[in-house]
Design brief:
The protein has 115 residues and is mostly helical. Helices cover 77% and strands 5% of the residues.
């Protein structure tokens, strides 16, 4: 049940962020946002650890800031996999991933005690 609630919350956050970033992120409909939430979750589970291992020296020298680049790449991969979700530039993906991570952590902190 918690997983379904987190997917719905992430989908809502994707829709909200896309409405704020109208010229750089486009989500056609709510079902696309649900697919984005699911695909981003799966990419973060299976693909991101591989990228982190391969880029460990770069991540070490940038004091972890390269992880932001990896998150942006995950968003761009999600753009290629999900129809109805469009990211127009790397910088848009970077800002979207930063804002999504911050908003998820805030919302999850508030609802964690209520679930």
């Amino acid at each position: 049940m918690k997983l379904i609630i987190k997917i719905i919350i992430t989908s809502l956050l994707v829709m909200i962020l896309a409405s704020f970033m109208k010229k750089s992120i486009v989500v056609d409909e709510f079902t696309s946002a649900i697919y984005v939430a699911i695909v981003l979750g799966l990419l973060n589970i299976f693909v991101k650890p591989v990228f982190v291992v391969f880029t460990l020296p770069v991540t070490f020298f940038t004091l972890g800031l390269f992880l932001l680049v990896i998150n942006a790449v995950m968003v761009m991969i999600c753009d290629k996999l999900v129809d109805g979700f469009h990211v127009y530039s790397f910088w848009s993906a970077l800002w979207f991933s930063i804002l999504l991570s911050i908003s998820q952590s805030i919302v999850y902190r508030f609802i964690e005690n209520k679930i």
